[in-house]
Design goal:
This protein is about 30% helix and about 40% strand. It is elongated, with a radius of gyration of 18 Å. It has a domain at about 25-100 and about 145-215: Hypothetical Protein Pfu-838710-001 (Beta Barrel), CATH 2.40.320. With about 220 residues, it is an alpha+beta fold.
Length: about 220
């Protein structure tokens, strides 16, 4: 089991590139104003991780829909990634890839995959392909959709054979801190949550966090 988890971790971090598909992973993540003590414990409990994940920065655009909480859509470096919620066990969430696309994106993909994932009316598509800017114009024209800028600064760890991170996140400029643990083995995540001291917090995914910041969901964060 340990060998399997280490294999999964290396594939996640890109050290091993293989066509073998690992089991779908589960995740606990939460957001709040600070997790200083938990972050310190996570760093001290962590095994060594590849240098390239010590710190990572990215700028992304999340597309959120007022009518859908099951599909998580983000755009980074001109590429669209949609993940869909699969199931929840022991308070942990499992998400799987639904589609991946690159801009310019085809009309067929928008019609058959992207807008159905938002669960909103289809816009009038008159072109064969659309640039990112053209796509965002359509998003902003729909009152049920929001394009939200998300900036991330993430610090990677590995505790109990689970992929972990602490991150500073700016959602339309509003700063939050996030902390997470993910693995194919639920027991390892639950142990990590307890060891780090985050087992008493609500599991909040990125889709929920973005919606809470922009007021699409009226709920508080973990702290």
């Amino acid at each position: 089991m340990v060998f399997h988890n280490i294999f999964f971790i290396r594939r996640k971090y890109g050290e091993i590139r293989s066509r073998v598909i690992s089991d779908p992973r589960f995740e606990f993540r939460t957001f709040g104003r600070e997790f200083d003590e938990a972050s310190l414990r996570m760093g001290r409990l962590s095994m060594p991780v590849p240098e390239k994940v010590w710190e990572r920065r990215s700028e992304e655009i999340y597309i959120v829909s007022a009518t859908n909480d099951k599909n998580n859509t983000k755009i980074r470096d001109g590429k669209m990634d949609i993940k869909t919620f699969v199931t929840e066990k022991d308070g942990l969430e499992q998400w799987n890839p639904l589609m991946k696309g690159e801009f310019p994106i085809s009309k067929d993909v928008l019609e058959n995959e992207v807008f159905p994932a938002f669960a909103v009316d289809m816009p009038d598509l008159t072109k064969d392909t659309y640039t990112l800017d053209e796509f965002l114009i359509m998003v902003r024209a729909n009152r049920l959709l929001k394009a939200v800028k998300v900036e991330k600064q993430r610090f990677g760890y590995m505790v109990n054979d689970t992929i972990c991170e602490v991150g500073n996140v700016w959602i339309n400029g509003a700063k939050l801190v996030t902390i997470n643990s993910e693995s194919t083995v639920l027991a390892d995540i639950l142990k990590t949550m307890k060891d780090v001291g985050i087992d008493g917090y609500e599991n909040i995914n990125y889709l929920q966090a973005v919606k809470r910041v922009i007021g699409m969901i009226d709920k508080p964060f973990a702290n």
